[in-house]
Amino acid sequence: MSLLENAAKTAEGVMVNGFVLSPVVEQCAGCDRVREFEGEQFCSSYPAPEKKWAAGRCNFATHVKTQVAAAAKVNPLKASKRAAKGGH
Ligand code: SF4
C-alpha cells in the first residue's frame, strides 16, 4: 500500500494540505485510494471517509465499482441458465 502524501501529524490529528483526516471506515477496505500513515489508513481522495459512506456508497470507491461490474457479468449467466432449464 502506498503512503499518504504530504501528511503530517499535528495536535489535531493527521493533516494533509490543511485538512484533518479521519481514518478510513470498514467499507473502504480494498479501495485503491486507501493510504497508510503511521500505522493508520486514510483516504487519498476524501478527508472524512465515514461521511462519504453515511449517505450510501462512496462515489470515489474503486473496489465497489468492480463488484458491481462483476455482478453485472453474473446476472446474464444466471438468466441464460434459467432459460436453458425452462426452454422447450
Ligand atoms: S475513496 Fe471512498 S471508499 Fe475509497 S478510501 Fe476513500 S472514502 Fe474509502
Characterization of this structure:
The longest helix is centred in the last third of the chain and has 25 residues. The protein has one domain. It has a three-stranded antiparallel beta sheet, with no helix packed on it. Strands 4-5 form a two-stranded antiparallel sheet. The protein has two helices and five strands; from the N terminus they run βββββαα. 35% of the residues lie in helices and 22% in strands. With 88 residues, it is of the alpha+beta class. Iron/sulfur cluster binds next to α1.
Give a summary of the structure in a few sentences:
The chain has 88 residues and is an alpha+beta fold. It has one domain.
Radius of gyration: 19 Å
Strand content: 15-25%
Q: Termini, distance in Å?
A: 53 Å
Strand order of the largest sheet: 1-2-3
Could you give the order of the helices and strands?
EEEEEHH
What is the averaged pLDDT score? 86
Biggest beta-sheet profile: 3 strands, antiparallel
Bound ligands? iron/sulfur cluster
Low-confidence stretches: none
Structural class assignment: alpha+beta
Number of distinct beta strands: 5
Tell me the domain tally: 1
> What general outline do the C-alpha atoms trace?
elongated
Number of helices: 2
Q: How much helicity do the residues have? A: 25-40%
